[in-house]
Amino acid sequence: MSKLKPRCRLYLQVAAPFTARQSEQLSQALSELSPACVLICGDGAALDPAILDGLIDKIQGAGAACLIEDSITAAEDLGADGVHIAADEEIYAEARKTLGESANIGVACGLGRHDAMALAESGADYVAFAAPDADDFETLSDTVAWWSEIFVVPCVAWDIADVREAVALTERGVDFIAPPSSIWDGDDPLAVLREIDTAIGSIRREA
Fold first, then answer.
1. In this predicted structure, what is the pLDDT of residue 50?
2. Is pTM, for the whole model, over 0.90?
3. What tens digit of pLDDT does each residue of 62-107 get?
């Protein structure tokens, strides 16, 4: 009997500061969808511990990892589980040294295969691939397939809001689908997230 890969899961992005409506919707998403991770995006005053402490507790209490975008210092100060950074070996080394071996450190690689391989070899916990524009989706799909066939470090498909694209990438082996933070600005973001979550969760892939 063939061994199966774990089911593809959602990786949520949220932009600080949050409105009361967005906070409520995120609470629902955490309860209903069980995302693997929530990335808090923002800088400066938007990452105020007085504002974010409760949110981070809520994310971690739901069993999801909570990461901070770019700011190693904020990730450490806020007690987050890790950081999402650019694919730069010096930044990665600083993040690992500051946050420790147990931290979750992911890297944004665009479509860069060399960067992904180098950072995975250095110890990154995941690599994120993204298409710069809609015309690059096929290249993104091919990159995901190449990665999933060769490497064990998980990969994330970044800024995917279309359920058909999410399904196609899941079928090609992606481990996580990360809808854009702008998804929360829509009329019914939970409906979109539920649709994506149901679609990707129904697909089983051979390891």
1. 81
2. yes
3. 999 999 999 999 999 999 999 999 999 999 999 999 999 999 999 9
- Alpha carbons 28 and 41: distance in angstroms, whole number: 19
Cβ-based neighbours of 185, under 8 Å, separated by 6 or more: none
Look up residue 12 and give its two tokens. Answer: 């949520």
Query: Phi, psi at residue 32, to the nearest 5°?
Result: -90, -35
What is the residue whose two structure tokens read 């693997």?
36
What is the three-state SS of 58-97? HHHHCCCEEEEECCHHHHHHHCCCEEEEECCHHHHHHHHH
Position of tokens 């060769």?
150
Give the relative orientation of helices 113-122 and 89-99 as an angle to the nearest 10 degrees: 30
Looking at residue 76, its amino acid is E
Cα separation, 28 vs 114, in Å, equals 38
Render pLDDT for 167-203 as a digit per residue (tens, 0 to 9): 999 999 999 999 999 999 999 999 999 999 999 999 9
CA-to-CA distance for 28 and 54, rounded, in angstroms? 15
Could you tell me the two tokens for 6? Answer: 């774990």
Dist. CA 129–CA 126, nearest whole Å: 10
Query: CA angle at residue 61 from 58 to 65, to 5 degrees?
Result: 90
In the chain, the amino acid numbered 74 is: A
Helix (H) or strand (E) holding 110: strand 104-110
| Alpha helices (runs of H) in 123-161, residue ranges in sequence order | 137-150
3-state secondary structure of 136: helix
